[in-house]
């Protein structure tokens, strides 16, 4: 098979990671893998793993992107992929228009993946107008069936995102060298019970809830410390400052540590005693929660979206009612007073995700 995946850019994020994972699996299975994007820092890895990258500016939400329709059509006609797999709205629209100019009997098959709970409108509807629509969780299946009645339920295929148990092995511990370096960089973390809130610095990730939690628990548990793992985009600098002022005014500066953007997220998840998932909006999947559980760290999170699906299957005692601050408080107290064990995770594997996706490609092609 020759598969062409299309996405805006190849820098970082779940969509990008998923694209690379499927590309790698295709090559391993003896197929041809092409990826079209505006480029980015993951291109080198993609190509080193055997795929071909085709650079095209299909990333901008602006009318100027319409100039890319003809070049995209030329790419499709030149490479003649069996399947086009679109993973984002702008590429999906450009592909839609590019295919209109190709005779029906020469068009490749079209598959889409709905990675997000997009705003419900005509612009987003394009993601549900493919032969098969991959939803990354049951929550996404529900979102599509509720909001896009034109998408026949039989065309929706739920394929969970997956992680590699080899990359996040159960019981994983950071090296002594890593621990020593972390205590050197952040001496305030030594001999503490660490609660970790992973994720970019945005209003969506629940940092205010964490601050409130630490304020309520600081006197009762003097050795409790919070670690925020994730960087702030320059555009979010004002929000970061507002948050740090809030922390200072509550006298929590020595209780909450921001470690910034990190590439060693596995180490931080394994090093922490509890990981929190407190996003203000439902997440479509919740990869970080799964990574934490995979290494054996308990996760406490709101009962909604993909995180709830992961917790209910893997660690149901970590589920708490949405925005119930006292339930959150009690769950954290319980984990401090009685440290909990997490069983090895046997679902949501990367191999399953890749196998199911490649099976779907084959299925679509055998319908010819």
Task: Give a topology summary.
Elements: E1 2-6, H1 14-28, E2 32-37, H2 43-48, E3 52-55, H3 69-79, E4 83-86, H4 89-100, E5 109-114, H5 122-125, E6 132-135, H6 138-147, E7 156-158, H7 176-185, E8 193-198, H8 207-217, E9 224-229, H9 237-249, E10 256-260, H10 265-271, E11 274-277, H11 287-295, E12 299-302, H12 305-314, E13 319-320, H13 325-337, H14 350-366
Parallel strand pairs: 1-2, 1-4, 2-3, 4-5, 5-6, 6-7, 8-9, 8-11, 9-10, 11-12, 12-13
Helix pairs in contact: 1-14, 3-4, 8-13, 11-12
Descriptive notes:
- By secondary structure, this protein is an alpha/beta fold.
- The chain has helices at 14-28, 43-48, 69-79, 89-100, 122-125, 138-147, 176-185, 207-217, 237-249, 265-271, 287-295, 305-314, 325-337, 350-366, and strands at residues 2-6, 32-37, 52-55, 83-86, 109-114, 132-135, 156-158, 193-198, 224-229, 256-260, 274-277, 299-302, 319-320.
- Strands 3-2-1-4-5-6-7 form a 7-stranded parallel beta sheet, sandwiched between helices. Strands 10-9-8-11-12-13 form a 6-stranded parallel beta sheet, sandwiched between helices.
- Helix 6 (138-147) links the parallel strand 6 and strand 7 (156-158).
- The two termini are 14 Å apart.
Mean pLDDT: 96
Supply the CATH architecture of the largest domain.
3-Layer(aba) Sandwich
Helix and strand element order = EHEHEHEHEHEHEHEHEHEHEHEHEHH
Derived from helix and strand composition plus strand pairing, the structural class reads alpha/beta
Please report which band the strand proportion falls in: under 5%, 5-15%, 15-25%, 25-35%, 35-45% or over 45%. 15-25%
The CATH H-level superfamily of the largest domain is Glycogen Phosphorylase B
The CATH class assignment of the largest domain is Alpha Beta
Helix share bin: 40-55%
Cα-based radius of gyration, to the nearest Å: 22 Å
End-to-end C-alpha gap: 14 Å
Count of individual domains:
2
- Numbering strands along the chain, what is their spatial order in the largest sheet? 3-2-1-4-5-6-7
Assign the CATH topology of the largest domain.
Rossmann fold
Summarize the biggest pleated sheet: 7 strands, parallel
Pick out the low-confidence regions: none
* SS field, number of helical segments: 14
The gross shape turns out to be elongated
| Tally of strands | 13
